[in-house]
Amino acid sequence: MKYRDIFEGTFIERPHRFGAMVDIGGKTEYVHVKNTGRCRELLVPGARVFLERSNNQKRKTAFSLISVISKDLLINIDSQAPNKVVEESITNGAIPQFRDVAFLKREKTYGNSRFDLYFERKNGKRGFIEVKGVTLDVDGVAMFPDAPTERGLKHLLELRKALAEGYEAYVFFLIQYSPVKSFSPNFSTDPKFAAGLQNVCEEGVEAIAYDSCVNSSAIIIGNQVKINILPDNS
Length: 234
Hints:
- By secondary structure, the protein is α+β, with helices and mostly antiparallel strands.
- Strand 7 (101-110) and strand 8 (113-121) form a beta hairpin.
- It contains three helices and 15 strands.
- The protein has two domains: 6-71, CATH 2.40.50.580; 81-224, Trna Endonuclease, Chain: A, domain 1, CATH 3.40.1350.60.
C-alpha cells in the first residue's frame, strides 16, 4: 500500500482523537489523524511524524498523519491500512495460509458483526478474517489492544460462532512496524480480550500475526511473527 505527496513534521499536541497540531516546515497545521485509538505512547510532543497531503479541495484538513517515529521505530498508525495490506497480500499470494483463495470480499456481514474479509478457497471451503492493526511495542513485543476494546471481543465471539457453523475463522494481527520479537495480547490493558483470544483459539479459531515493512510512503506485508497467547507468568 502506497501513499502520495508525503511531508515530514513535528507533533505538537492532539486536542481530540480526530485531529492533531503538527509543525510542518515551521508552520503549525491542524491535521487529520487516521487512527481514533489512544496512541499515547506514540503521539508525544516533539515526535517526528509523516503526513500525506490530500488532493481533495473540499477537505477541512490538508494533511493526514499516517506514521510516527518512536524509539527508533517507524510505526504506521493509519487504521485503514491493515485491511488494505492484508487484502492486497492475499490477492498477490504473499500469505502462505491463503494462497489457494479463489474469491475474496471485503466487509462481509455475519450475525451481528461485519468481518473485514470473507474468502472462498479453491476446494470450496469458506471463511472469515478479522484484521487488527497493531501499533503498540513493548520492548520488542507487539501488543494488542492499546486500550480496552469491547468491539474486539465481540468479533472474537462472532468468529467462534462462525467456526461452529462450518466456516474457517481467522483473527489476523497486522503489526504496523518491524522488527518484532513476538506478538502477545495485552493482558494488563484488556484482560477480557486476552482471555477471549485464548479461549477462541483453543476452540479452533486461528490467530496469525505478521509484521510490516514500513517507510514514509508505503506499508507492505512483512514476515510471520510468533504469537504468545498465554501471559508470561502462566
